[in-house]
Amino acid sequence: MAVFGVYPRPLPEVTDYALLRILTLASVLLGAAACLKEEGWPLFSWVIFLGTPFAFWVSWKYRHVKNWWLLLGLAVLMLICLGDFLWNLSKNIYDPRIPLAKLLLWLQMLHSFDLPARKDLQYSILVGFILVCIASVLSRDNTFLLLLVPYLVVTCAVLILNYLSSHPGGEKALPPAPALLRKALGLSLAILVMGIGIFTVTPRFRGMRIRNLPVSFRITFPAFYDGRVMNPGYPSTRDMGWVEWKGPRQAWGAFNPNFYFGFASYLDLTYRGGLSDRIVLKVRSEEPTYWRGLAFDSYDGRGWNMTSRDTERFSAQDPPIVLPQEIQFPDSREIVQIFYIEQEQPNVVFAAYEPYQLFFPTESVFRDPYGGIRSPITLERGMVYSVVSRVQPLNVRTLRSAPYDIPPALAERYLQLPTTLPERVRKLAALVTANYKGLYDKASAICFFLQNHYPYDLNIPPPPPNSDAVDHFLFEERKGYCEQFGSAMVVLCRASGIPARLVTGFASGTFNPLTSYYEVRGNDAHAWVEVFVPYHGWVTFDPSPGYTQNPGPTFQKQTWILGSVAEYLKNALSSLVPESLRKRLREAWTAAHFRFAGLKALWVSLLLIALALTITAFAFGSRNLRKGIPSLAGLLRKAPEDNRGAVRKVFRSLERYLNRHKYPSFPSQTPSEYLSGIPAPWSAVSTRELEDIYLSARYSDHSVTGEDVEKARAVLAEIKTIRRASRRWTLDA
User: Fold this and answer.
1) Which of 215, 368, 442, 728 is the most exposed, having the fewest neighbouring CB atoms within 10 Å of its CB?
2) Residue 12 belongs to a domain
3) Same domain for 423 and 382?
4) With pLDDT > 70 as the criterion, what percentage of the chain qualifies?
């Protein structure tokens, strides 16, 4: 009966199979959990986890009812979700991933209230898969695998069950639960092995060419911010350098292992303590380099200070904030970095030197005279910002030929040394650089001297109260860590007439090939040196033992992931071995390497032999392997045949047969038109019965029996028989 001229929509074919619905629910919940975990478990997570099972129950209970009122309510709620999505998108149009994921989660829960038919369950499976894909994009650690593996097993079970039960009577012929689980595990294992194999042999190309880079929601900062450094681990650093310096313990208190004391306006060389190894930053970058923070220009014998307190403000209503460069080089290259704050950090904006585009949550940032960028707020956990830096490739030949053309203002600031500096420090600088003429060569000689004559040691006592920190390190202690090495190089460079400054920040961290992020830990906080070379700007040096002398990007075209995975696993496993045992193993390996010169070639040969044996064993055991892991073709063969599908298959066979004999079918033809136009000699066969059976199977709700299938096959066989008989008659004639 029509209401206002509109005929009611017929009920879809309802699926009453409860196990299929339960497994679909499990697949959807696992996909939602993976996505919500990467979003940091927002407040609406509990609504998704409670609302989705309830929605599945409502859909099951009212699956045979025309619940138009429910559909109307769902439509209104979906429009509300769309409005919420547009609102969230307007606050951060440069990274729509989180708003899109939130919209999809809400739509999936609302859609779960109306799942009467099999196709509705299939849509839910697809949405769960999309949520897992979003989670894989947002994932920044390996814990994503803890949800990916069970999701894969459950989803494989759902797909197998959905296919086997999709035919009439298929639900009665389904395998028992243990057999279904074995098939799902086998298929999941095959997918995992294939996926890992493809992943490990895929090259990493330099990417991230997009300019709408990820950034957190816009944050309004306090109007009274004056550009000073704020370190949450040392609250009194808000006033550091603005009042008389009285020593770290009196001003800061006890050492805080969660925050680096080098992120302040004053760096005290007498401060001691070890930093924690928890991850504080995760960086997505095209190239590994140092993440620069602050720089210091004034040395007073006990630490480093910033002579100038001035900062310059840079603002932009919409990202990015553009930062002018000190020197623009025509051969500079861009490096794109995305920073994810995992633990609260000072208001220092870390970036590869020198940044020129900043996608930051605040409207303004501040830059000091030393190139350090400061945020008006501390970097809170969960904050995201992106940086585009321009880096000049290191060209040693041109650096060596640079003249001693140093601007007077720059020389006055970066050649400063205290009058109390012992004379033996100046004599050591002259001795180390005596055989070198160029500015860059002298700096390299000092860096090489420190790296090869002083060991790295974190467990050193503070220098005596009235001593010079650099002099004590060079002549008394003769060991130290990055602050001592960096300070010594800056002082020796200045004593040799080379402008230099001390820089603090983070080393590049450990590259995780599974996530493509650099994992930066608290103890990756580092100090290094920047040397000014005329017409080339500031060149990075790292005099600490175990570090590269000139750290910076290598601009490699690609890196094979397989090698990165092996290196990452080696570092992860070695961290589980005690340091004393690792030291003995390294010594034993070194001794064996010198004793057996061909050991490397031997290892390569053994690996090749092992690979050949593995391939051979796989070839001989492939039959047994196929028995243990069900193939997709095997699953398809075990599926019960559908009568409607069998009739359609017969009709397609007829089309292919007649097409080979110069009677093609056209998309514009109906089945009746096609069958009525069959030419001789096949026109003698009555195709009326085949036409009725096919139309019934294709477009009618009437059941198709096995007898109908046999009749259709008989018509096809008769047509083929006539053709063969016609060919025999022609040959006989």
Assistant:
1) 728
2) no
3) no
4) 76
Max Cα distance, the chain (Å) = 124
Q: Is the pLDDT of residue 167 over 80?
A: no
User: What is the C-alpha to C-alpha distance for residues 386 and 338, in angstroms, rounded to an integer?
Assistant: 4
The phi, psi pair for 489, rounded to 5°, reads -65, -40
1 part of a folded domain: no
Query: Closest Cα to residue 522, out of 151, 209, 232?
Result: 232
Mean pLDDT for 400-411 is: 87
The helices-and-strands tally (H runs, E runs) of the chain is 23, 20
Pick from 295, 208, 719: nearest CA to 503: 295
Q: Which residue has the higher pLDDT, 506 or 566?
A: 506
Q: Where are the alpha helices (DSSP H) in 404-545?
A: 408-414, 423-432, 439-453, 469-472, 482-495
> Distance between CA atoms of 570 and 213, rounded to whole angstroms?
32
Strands (E), 59-100: none
Tokens of 363: 């409207």
Greater confidence (643 vs 419) lies with 419
φ, ψ of residue 709 to 5 degrees: the values are -60, -45
- Give the model's confidence band at 489: pLDDT under 50 very low, under 70 low, under 90 confident, else very high: very high
Is 123 a member of any domain?
yes
CA torsion 533→535→538→539, rounded to 10°?
-60
Range list of β-strands (E), 257-381: 266-268, 279-285, 291-296, 298-299, 303-305, 312-315, 321-322, 333-341, 348-349, 355-359, 364-367, 373-374
- 90 and 195, same domain (yes or no): yes
- If asked whether residues 583 and 545 sit together in one domain, one would say no
Q: Structurally, how many domains does the chain consist of?
A: 5
Q: Are residues 685 and 615 in the same domain?
A: no
Average pLDDT of the residues in 123-138: 90
- CB atoms inside a 10 Å sphere around CB 558: 10
**Under 8 Å between Cβ of 147 and 34:** yes
Tokens standing for 129? 């898969």
Contact (Cβ atoms closer than 8 angstroms) between residue 647 and residue 709: yes
Q: What is the pLDDT of residue 51?
A: 92
Distance CA 59, CA 397 (A): 73
In the chain, what is the straight-line distance between the N-terminal and C-terminal CA atoms, in Å?
Answer: 65
pLDDT confidence tier of residue 490, bands split at 50, 70 and 90: very high
Residue 585: the pLDDT is 62
In a domain, 635, yes or no: no
Rg over CA atoms, the chain? 36
Tokens representing 578 are 């005690």
Q: Please state the φ and ψ torsions of residue 305, each to the nearest 5 degrees.
A: -130, 170
Q: Within 558-687, where are the H helices?
A: 561-574, 579-595, 599-620, 622-628, 632-638, 643-660, 671-676
Strand pairing category for 373-374 and 517-521? unpaired
- Could you tell me if 141 and 29 lie in one domain? yes
Range of the domain at 656: 641-732
Given a contact cutoff of 8 angstroms between Cβ atoms, the answer to whether 279 and 512 are in contact is: no
Q: Are residues 155 and 31 in the same domain?
A: yes
What is the reported pLDDT for 634?
46
For the ranges 138-152, 174-188, 442-456, 572-586, the one whose mean pLDDT is highest: 442-456
> Are residues 317 and 280 both part of a single domain?
yes
Q: Which of 536, 551, 566 is the last residue of a domain?
A: 551
Q: State residue 723's pLDDT score.
A: 58
256-272 confidence digits (pLDDT tens): 889 998 998 889 898 88
